[in-house]
Structure prediction request, 253 residues.
Amino acid sequence: MADLIPSIALPRPSSDWALFLDVDGTLLDIAERPEEVVVPAALPVLLAELQRVFGGALALVSGRTIENLDQLFQPLTFAAAGEHGAEIRPSPDAPLTVYPPHQPTAALRAAIDRVGGAAEGLVVEQKRFGIAVHYRAFPAMRYPVQTGVEAVLRESGEPMELLAGKMVWELRSRGSTKGRAVARLMEAPPFHGRLPVFVGDDRTDVDGFLEVTRRGGAALPVGVVPMMTEMAFADPSAVRIWLATLPALIRDA
Prediction:
């Protein structure tokens, strides 16, 4: 990532933004296992400051569950969309709303566990509405994992789709996308009527990019993102540095 050169001019920050932030690969450096990510000590406080600057219109939009996001950034909480929009919480103290997607059956979960057990180093992440198989520790397993998961999904007939991520294959419920998550959050205060800005690093973030672009906002990719021809940031550290400059830039403006 260090050799990548950003090519998208960053938008001039404004207090009327609605800021949507992916987490893994965007705010946080990716780890071999999801539970091994490290949250920089200053990051939750910075996000809280940005939440104040944007009048509450800051949301974490992630493939993780909202419960897991709260654990990562404790003791602070934020507006959030979890599991690609299957869960929505429009403000830190609002109740969590679930948009009923399909939940994988026990049989499908067990079959994916068997795929993940095919080689040492594969990690199966069972979520409420989805399943991810991480192969970061064993990159040569990319296509064998894909083949195995596709076969299991085909046989199950369950209404889920398979997406390629960074060193991960993920099953998610059809209709749960970050684009829909952004659209639902934009209907609620404090996001409604603001200019949406989405920062993300992976294929699942492209749906969010398309939604904010449709609304006249800004899509800011981190690193090389499928379907995107340019990038705004080389890596998560560049994102964190940029975020830290926003409060002062907005005050000066």
